[in-house]
Amino acid sequence: MKPCKEINALDFLIWVLLRDPTNPQFELRDWLPNCELKDVEAQEIITYIEHAKSDLIEGKSEPGSEIGDVDFPLSGVVTNNLKWAFSLKGKQKPCNKHSAGPTYIHIWKNGDNLYYLEIHNES
Questions:
Q1: 79 phi/psi in degrees, rounded to 5
Q2: Tens-place pLDDT, residues 112-121
């Protein structure tokens, strides 16, 4: 059996976006070329994860919340064995798959695991 090649950040990002369950409004070819991958430090991703966790926990207490008792097992998924981390940033519009976001897209490799984090901030 031949070993598989190491996946890079762009290959992973495209693989994820081609299988996007969020029903994007724009075709990948119409917005992804207007973006660039920027190196990001683990602490920045941790900050976004912690903020997203606090938003979800806050939302759990609202009447009619559909989240229920979800556990948030995100501790350690960033810094244990970080290989690379990138943020997808727009250079010009359109630079998102939805007309109103996402606000942030981060991808990273920690050990043998690949992660994709997409955050939509609602106004």
A1: -100, -10
A2: 888 888 877 6
Identify residue 8 by its one-letter amino acid code: N
- Element of type H or E holding 56: helix 42-60
Is residue 2 helix, strand or coil? Answer: coil
- Which amino acid, one-letter code, is at 100? A
CB within 8 A of 99, min separation 6: which ones?
25, 26
| Ordered DSSP codes for 8-40 | PHHHHHHHHHHT-TT--SS-HHHHGGGEEEEE-
pLDDT > 70? residue 89: yes
Taking a C-beta distance cutoff of 8 angstroms, is the pair 91, 36 a contact?
yes
Instruction: Give the pair of three-digit tokens for residue 98.
Output: 């939805």
Q: What is the DSSP letter of 91?
A: S
